[in-house]
Amino acid sequence: MNIGYVIKILRTQRKMTQEQIALEADLATSNVSRIEKGLRQPSQKVLKKLAYALNTKPSILYAASERPLAEIQDFLEKEGKEETDGSISHQLLHHETQTVIKLFSELTPNNKSLLLEQLKSLHQWQRKLEQ
After folding, report:
1. Mean pLDDT in runs of 10 for the chain (131 residues)?
2. Would you list the domain boundaries of the chain?
3. DSSP secondary structure letters along 47-73
4. Fold (topology level) of 3-85
5. pLDDT at site 95
6. Where is the HTH cro/C1-type domain (predicted)?
7. Quick one: residue 55, left, alpha or beta (phi over 0 = left, psi -120 to 50 = alpha)?
């Protein structure tokens, strides 16, 4: 299993540093480094955080890690294209929406959860006012 190598490839494909991934996943940069070097195997919890930070699914990380080293990069590129084919084009989004998406993507997982809860509450409050 080459999970660390998979994480490193995805990180470099996304032009992110170990520090950025660590911040997004709420981990120490040294932990990300050790995982990428194969010195440490991530727990399920850590793997979920890393997958989230890399904008993918843990199942993709597992599937890629079971492939021969020579095939991993091609597999990840193919999977990345399939994941984005169904998404909304950023060119079609309003500028404010793009800004919100960018700012949201830069939040830590804990802050994302807090913000989503606040948005849900605000939405419910607004609906009550409209009735």
Report:
1. 92 91 92 96 94 90 91 86 49 60 86 89 85 78
2. 3-85, 90-130
3. HHHHHHHTTS-HHHHHHHHTS-HHHHH
4. 434 Repressor (Amino-terminal Domain) (1.10.260)
5. 60
6. 7-61
7. left
Type of residue numbered 90: H
pLDDT of residue 79: 81
User: CA quadruple 77, 33, 61, 91: dihedral positive or negative?
Assistant: negative
> Phi and psi dihedrals of 33, rounded to 5?
-60, -45
**Residue 87: left (phi > 0), alpha (psi -120 to 50), or beta?**
beta
Q: Read out DSSP for 57-116?
A: -HHHHHHHHTS-HHHHHHHHHHHHHHHHHTSPPGGGS-HHHHHHHHHHHTS-HHHHHHHH
Structure tokens at 17: 């540093």
pTM of the full structure: 0.61
Q: Amino acid letter at 96?
A: E
Among 44, 39, 35, 40, smallest CA distance to 10 is for: 35
